[in-house]
Design brief:
Layout lengths: L8 H4 L11 E11 L4 E10 L2 E12 L5 E8 L6 E3 L3 E7 L2 E13 L1 H5 L11 E12 L4 E2 L12 E16 L6 E17 L5 E11 L4 E11 L2 E13 L2 E8 L13 E7 L4 E8 L3 E5 L5 E3 L9 E12 L2 E12 L1
Antiparallel strand pairs: 1-2, 1-11, 2-3, 3-4, 4-7, 5-6, 6-7, 7-8, 8-10, 9-10, 10-11, 12-13, 12-21, 13-14, 14-15, 15-16, 16-17, 17-20, 18-19, 18-20, 20-21
């Protein structure tokens, strides 16, 4: 699939008219990491399923000293060829190239706090200041899931794509001077539209990476819970080579067996018509959040009284045939 054909500009930008469908939403996610600078981020901007006129924004930044910043908000600020929440702006400059911006307050946290049970839905300061200006540029074809999601409850239209991320992140602790960090790393993004109501959510594992020789891979494994039983939902993997996408079989999903202490390494196997890839994954950073049925998120790993799922977002180093790569591991389980 060629990105000059898909996605088009109309595929990329938010819909102009909202469909009359219960819990309908539209969501953008971008994430990436710079191995050399030890800095990265994960952001999400999506229409609130309870009122799709509002955009719900969330941004984590992984700082070089091992700490994290975290912010969440709601808003609706128009952006030409893009979307805007309260403080976040995403703009499609052309298909496959996006400008990601944020300016405002954020909270500083650490891995231990984020892995613990949530103290409440709202966690206040102290607040730091953050300015964020990053360009995403695609470097692989978009993986479009097609119509296989027509019966899913998290979206009906979805595609995702590898790329690069370049730009600056400025950070200021209270009473301190501004710090400037330059990011030049690998990245990934997705875009989805459709109903998002997760009462039957079972689990989700979303893993992707790219290597220095141009090879890349993506994997998504999702299941639901219906009448107390696990039901397969969506489970596919692909390998990218020379601008083409190849279907792959996979094994070695790093399931979470301890919600407060997930594994830090794993071995993933991908078998395609190209070859069999045996990939070693090593988690570089790890942050946790939980969410309710409508994906309203909060810090920590919740139990069933406060959330329907908990999720780890984890920049990951990959090694395949001695070639180093970089990517991401997302692990989500029902509470």
């Amino acid at each position: 699939m060629n990105t000059k054909i898909f996605p088009t500009k109309q595929d990329e930008i938010p819909v102009s008219e909202l469909p009359d469908i219960p819990h309908w939403s539209e969501n953008y996610c971008f994430e990436g990491y710079d191995e050399q600078s030890n800095i990265g981020f994960w952001l999400h901007l999506g229409r609130w399923p309870r009122n799709p006129q509002l955009w719900r924004e969330q941004l984590w930044v992984y700082l070089p000293d091992g700490s994290y910043t975290s912010m969440r908000g709601f808003g609706s600020h128009p952006v030409t060829d893009g979307a805007g929440g309260a403080l976040m702006k995403l703009r499609c400059e052309e298909p496959g190239r996006w400008r990601l911006q944020f300016e405002g307050p954020t909270r500083v946290s650490n891995e231990m706090r984020l892995k613990d049970a949530p103290a409440s839905y709202l966690s206040d300061g102290p607040f730091a200041a953050l300015r964020f200006n990053i360009e995403f540029l695609e470097n692989q074809p978009a993986w479009h899931f097609g119509d296989v999601l027509k019966d899913e409850n998290w979206c009906h239209f979805h595609y995702e794509q590898h790329g690069t991320l370049k730009g600056d992140i400025h950070f200021q602790s209270p009473g301190e001077d501004w710090q400037r960090f330059t990011m030049d790393g690998t990245g990934y993004r997705d875009h989805s539209r459709g109903p998002r109501e997760l009462s039957t959510f079972g689990g989700n594992y979303w893993i992707h990476g790219q290597f220095a020789n141009g090879r890349a891979f993506s994997l998504m494994h999702v299941w639901k819970v219906e009448n107390g039983r696990q039901v397969p939902a969506f489970s596919k993997a692909v390998v990218y080579q020379d601008g083409k996408i190849f279907n792959a079989e996979f094994d070695g999903i790093p399931y979470v067996t301890d919600r407060h202490n997930p594994s830090k390494s794993y071995t993933l196997t991908l078998k395609s018509e190209l070859d069999t890839m045996v990939i070693q994954g090593r988690i570089k950073r790890s942050v946790a959040q939980s969410a309710d049925t409508f994906m309203d998120s909060f810090d920590g790993t919740a139990d069933s009284d406060t959330g329907v799922l908990f999720c780890y977002e984890e920049p990951t180093e990959f090694i395949w045939n001695g070639i180093k790569g970089s990517g991401h591991t997302e692990r989500a389980e029902r509470t």
